[in-house]
Write a structure and sequence with these properties.
By secondary structure, the protein is an alpha+beta fold. It contains 12 helices and 5 strands. The two termini are about 50 Å apart.
């Protein structure tokens, strides 16, 4: 038994390579710009050189409800739970693949009772045998190491994909939360304007009774009230849909978390000066880019394994046991080996190598596409934020002007200097401007979330690691 163990131990020391790590980080061959093109014309975003990514970007919004929702989502979201389970699966697959690098030892027990023939005078003899079978494939050409490296790269890709789910989840919760806030604000704005329009309608009704206004004026004012009031059901529907979506993102049935969602906070002013990391830093941080790169690394190892299939497979074998019977007691043992060399397989191995080469090419182009889309994603997010910020500033001015115009129209109408149509138009313009401003406030915050998401922020935050 000791001689067998010594043989396997020496062979293990000689032939098991210590390095089964996957291929090093691969280059995409996509030229990475030094700075973001969109920032060249920006007056709102500080292009400060930095090597760090804001991993807790939601703190900039100073909204405790948003923070509570993000914590809840990270604890209970089902898509994230699926991603975590995939990491466990990839880790288990790595363990299976790595086991091929080491000797396999199996216990063996046989028992029999029977007639052994004329040699033993036809006596009935009971016989028992117990022992250990051992085998080990000597990985001369690195086939098993390549498969182990492939499994390790796939595990790293699964881990990066889990991080990408975290980044996407945080962004989706924030976007839907700002949609919910916007829907609530839109309902409030509509009701406030509806109250003003009803006051105008009451004034017209009084004037009709005093023969100072026509029934046409009354119908026109009433139509505006009805039109404005008709907006509320659709806004309420959008509010309910945002609530339901947030409940699902939190891993709960629609309605289960509504008590938490009804505590929305007023949107606080944004600081337009934000720091954006350089493109190279963003690409290195984004989990989807790293996941794609690790997929490429896995195909490189798989290609290496396909090449080694052309070479011999050598396996060491050993047995040691104890055999007892009525006739004798023996301690059988054996040490041996076998070699298998592919000779005739009708192109199977060459086809497998071509498959591995094709998958490697696909992974490389997919990696390049992911890098390009990551750069595009950030450029678009920066552009959207910049232009929405300008639009938001103009809408603030428009709201103030329309409110003033509506006040003047009412004063002039009461003084007989203008007609009812001017008042109705002015009131309608106030509603439109306030509604557009509220929507812009939400869009501006969602665009800011998009910038943080495009940088891959959030996956390395303390709440994501809990």
């Amino acid at each position: 038994m000791n001689s067998i163990l010594n043989v396997f131990s020496i062979a293990s020391l000689l032939f098991i390579a210590g390095c089964i790590t996957p291929a090093k980080v691969q280059k995409s061959d996509i030229p990475t710009p030094m700075t973001w093109n969109t920032l060249a014309s920006s007056t709102h975003i500080t292009n400060t050189p930095t090597t760090s990514i804001d991993q807790q970007w939601w703190q900039h919004f100073e909204d405790p409800t948003l923070t509570a929702l993000l914590n809840e989502a990270l604890q209970n979201n089902k898509s994230l739970a699926i991603a975590k389970a995939r990491v466990l699966e990839a880790r288990a697959n790595r363990g299976i693949t790595r086991s091929a690098l080491f000797p396999q030892v199996n216990g063996k027990v046989d028992a029999s009772r029977g007639n052994l023939g004329a040699l033993y005078n036809y006596q009935i003899i009971a016989q028992a045998e117990a022992g250990f079978d051992a085998s080990w494939e000597v990985d001369f050409f690195g086939h098993n190491q390549a498969r182990a490296a492939e499994a390790q790269a796939l595990l790293q890709s699964a881990q990066a994909n889990e991080q990408a789910v975290v980044v996407g989840l945080l962004a989706e919760v924030a976007r839907n939360y700002f949609d919910l806030c916007n829907d609530a604000h839109q309902i409030e704005i509509t009701r406030q304007n509806l109250d003003n329009q009803k006051k105008t309608l009451a004034l017209i009704q009084a004037q009709v009774q005093g023969a100072m206004a026509s029934d046409f004026d009354l119908q026109r004012a009433g139509a505006q009230v009805s039109t404005t009031e008709s907006l509320i059901p659709s806004l309420q529907s959008a509010y309910d849909a945002a609530q339901n979506r947030l409940n699902v993102l939190l891993g709960a049935a629609p309605g289960a978390k509504n008590a938490l969602l009804t505590t929305t906070q007023p949107l606080k002013p944004l600081d337009p000066q934000i720091i954006v990391a350089a493109p190279a830093t963003v690409l290195a941080n984004r989990p989807d880019v790293r996941a794609s790169e690790r997929q490429l690394a896995a195909t490189l190892s798989a290609h290496r394994a396909a090449v080694t299939d052309f070479f011999p497979r050598i396996t060491l074998l050993g047995f040691y046991g104890l055999q007892t019977s009525k006739v004798d007691v023996m301690s059988p043992w054996s040490v041996g080996g076998n070699l298998i060399q592919p000779l005739l397989n009708f192109g199977r191995l060459r086809s497998q190598l071509k498959v591995a080469s094709a998958r490697q090419a696909q992974a490389f182009y997919s990696y390049q596409q992911t890098v390009l889309e990551a750069l595009e994603n950030m450029e678009n997010s920066l552009s959207s934020f910049m232009h929405e910020y300008d639009r938001n500033h103009l809408l603030n001015t428009a709201v103030a002007q329309n409110r003033k115009a509506a006040e003047l129209a009412k004063l002039q109408f009461r003084g007989g200097f203008t007609g009812l149509l001017d008042v109705l138009i002015a009131e309608r313009n106030v509603l439109d401007a306030e509604s557009a401003l509220a929507a812009s406030d939400a869009t501006l915050r969602k665009n800011l979330v998009a910038i943080y998401t495009a940088a891959g922020g959030g996956w390395d935050s303390p709440i994501a690691k809990n």
